[in-house]
Design brief:
With about 280 residues, this protein is mainly α. It has one domain. The protein is about 75% helix and about 0% strand. It has 13 helices and no strands. It has helices spanning about 1-20, 25-45, 55-80, 85-90, 95-105, 110-130, 135-160, 165-170, 175-185, 195-220, 220-225, 230-240, 250-279. Helix 1 (about 1-20) runs antiparallel to helix 10, helix 2 packs across helix 10 (about 195-220) and helix 4 (about 85-90) runs antiparallel to helix 6. The two termini are about 25 Å apart. The relative contact order is 0.20.
Amino acid sequence: MLFAVFLMSVLDVIAKILLYKFSVAQMTFLRGGFSLIILGAIGAIRYGVKSFNTPIPGWHFLRTVLMMISSFTFFAALALLPLVNIFVIVFVAPIVVAALSGPLLGEKVGVWRWSAVLIGFSGVLIILEPSTEFSLAGTIYGLIGVVTYALNTLTTRKLSGRESPLNLSFYIFFGPTILGAAISIFDWIPPTMWDWVLFFLTGLVGGFAFLFFNIALKKAEASFLASFEYTGLLWASLAGYFIFNEVVDSKIWLGAAIIILGGVIILYRESKVNKSIEN
């Protein structure tokens, strides 16, 4: 899970560079297209073409629609809200996952897991300091994005025993790729050779990020993994400082320490539970 979050942060850095020049639709199309090609090639070479046969086509359709909605509603929210407010809304997702994993997956979400998630979110608020600027439409778009993302996370956990992590990663990119292609026709900018390299890297990093994310959800409960998503903000802060020359002040280090504390709490608690089970 930590590696998946790191890869998603790398994807964000490359995407930020590309979005100075290209539209969101073109970015979504080429990122999704390259992810499909890379994951498809891995599956075909490693497991054979028959490995893409799936017993749950309906679930894959639902998941790619959720992915499509999640991607574009967040982009719509970005146009209406300050960036820091968007990030606060994004990091509500682990709370939604923790809340829904009980009724939808039957997971036991006790006080320790809730504490880790809420402590991590408090660290996010300290780092971001959301502004008071408000847009009802932007907030609604952002919350739709959060809920659809959380539902995708939960479906991954639900289907992990019935489908391979590779297929769960592969099929999810069809919706965003098709919609991105349809929209980007109207404002297509021809990429240079270097741009193509960067687009390829978004597909490579983004594809593997989802692959490791789905492997994590196959091995551990969604409510356990939720708090570790906050570590993405730590990588984003470091990237902002070293790549985009953004200032990293004391509140970021304080928030980072609190986020890490939430992860340490849940790891310590789970290790104690596992030891008692073994004994």
